[in-house]
Amino acid sequence: MGSIHHQLTMFWLIIFYMLVLHTHNKGGLLVEGIGCNWGTRAMHPLPPDVTVRLLKDNGFGKVKLFEAEPWVMQALGRSGLEVMLGIPNEFLAPLAASVQAAENWVMQNVSNYISKHGVDIRYVAVGNEPFLKTYKGMFQMTTFPAMQNIQAALIKAGLGRQVKVTVPLNADVYESSTGLPSNGDFRADIHDLMMSIVRFLQESGYPLTINIYPFLSLNADPNFPKEYAFFTPGTSSPIVDGAFTYTNVFDANYDTLIAALEKNGFGSVEVIVGEIGWPTDGDKDATVENARRFNQGLLDRVSQNKGTPRRSTPPDIYIFGLIDEDAKSIQPGNFERHWGMFYYDGTVK
User: Fold this and answer.
1) Which of 31, 159, 194, 285 could anchor a disulfide with 186, C-beta 3.0 to 4.6 Å?
2) Whole-number mean pLDDT of the chain?
3) pLDDT value for 195
4) What's the mean pLDDT in 157-177?
5) What contacts 24+ positions apart, CB below 8 Å, involve 42-45?
6) pLDDT at 7
């Protein structure tokens, strides 16, 4: 009896999603340059086909995954969604140590899903913020060799042109000695390593992926000007940096990276924003209203094809995230389980 009741409940929930989403985005038009992160750390994840429909009906043409889970990958087959497929940090050491291990990983998780299931894999993201200061250098010796071995494996599989290699990094890999974007450079402890990685990306025609979280800037500093975290004009005074003026922290943060690339001779490297978003609960600033304001400002920029003061070409952006994840660690804060644009059950926030 309970099982039948659950199935009926799920049926009506799915019908509800479809009605809401059709109303929300009539025609299901995809938005160029916008993707979404699909995290799966949930106690009762939605059926994967429903999640794919959520993505498509809300205008997302791209999706970023943190690992290759069969139930997710199969649902993405012939969906029309472009996929950035992640490799967890714990795989970096074996992939760095063995080209054969990289070939096996590519065969199982890339070639297999492209050829047998029609998954449109465009990128392999090697690691997830592996140079975070809190990791204390744990992945610094293995990330770049793993990237090289994955590239070699993709080329051997005949996918060298179709699938690009990238590495999603936290914004703490670069900094500015004066606080101004124009003085941006890579962290001293990983500067040489970043030069090797960025040179590899530039020579291969691959993008660098960076995660930028204005909410975390606000959350970490009690003196941070709140209005500066949003894209809409507020009461904060703009920051003037030579010929450039900054009215929000995203532009300033992103341009610190661009300045770091330019300073070291890699100004042409493409940049993707791999994660950006705003939580809706778990902190005084984590509210639905603030998330709506932030995300709307972000989407307005994309629809206007707006770049930053230092780089006029806008990056592809992957919003974090699609659905709340109630099995995530709350060590960074209670807000960690509330980044989704949808609640745990898929209902619209």
Assistant:
1) 194
2) 92
3) 98
4) 98
5) 42/323, 42/324, 42/325, 42/326, 42/327, 42/344, 43/326, 43/327, 43/344, 44/344
6) 40
**Residue 246 near residue 217, CB atoms below 8 Å:** no
Q: Which residues contact 211 (CB under 8 A, 6 or more apart)?
A: 129, 168, 169, 170, 171, 273, 274, 275, 276, 320
Query: Among this protein's residues, is 275 annotated catalytic?
Result: yes
* pLDDT tens by residue, 230-258: 998 766 789 999 999 999 999 999 999 99
Query: Does residue 218 sit in helix, strand or coil?
Result: helix
Distance CA 127, CA 142 (A): 10
- AA letter at 152: A
**Quick one: pLDDT at residue 235?**
66
Please confirm, yes or no, whether 325 is among the known catalytic residues: no
Tell me the residue length of the chain. Answer: 349
Where does 25-69 have alpha helices with state H? Answer: 48-57
Burial class (CB in 10 A: 0-12, 13-18, 19+), 243: exposed
pTM for the whole structure:
0.91
In this structure, what are the phi and psi dihedrals at residue 277, rounded to the nearest 5 degrees? Answer: 180, -170
Judge residue 191's burial from the number of C-beta atoms within 10 Å of its C-beta, 0-12 exposed, 13-18 middle, 19 or more buried: middle
User: What pLDDT score does 31 carry?
Assistant: 64
Tokens of 104: 């096996």
Among residues 50, 15, 73, 38, which one has the least CA distance to residue 340?
A: 38
The span from the CA of 147 to the CA of 166, in Å, is: 8
Q: Which residue has the tokens 């994967």?
A: 48
Q: Which of 67, 69, 103, 129 is catalytic?
A: 129
The 3-state DSSP class for residue 80 equals: coil
Residue 217 identity: S
Catalytic residue selected from 103, 275, 325, 336 = 275
